[in-house]
Amino acid sequence: MDLREFGVGGQILHDLGLTKLRLLTNHPKATLPGLHGFGLEIVEQVAMR
Description:
It is a single chain. This protein is of the alpha+beta class. It is 18% helix and 27% strand. It contains one helix and two strands. The longest helix has 9 residues, at 7-15. The radius of gyration is 11 Å and the shape is globular. The two termini are 17 Å apart.
């Protein structure tokens, strides 16, 4: 997976009060460790087809 900037999105999600996320992805084992710094936790990955 290529590196992307998720800082602004992570801050917006945090400001909206989100803490746990379901990640919609076409990558089977996507990891976004930078979101943890915003207090966000990916609890499930849902495959998009």
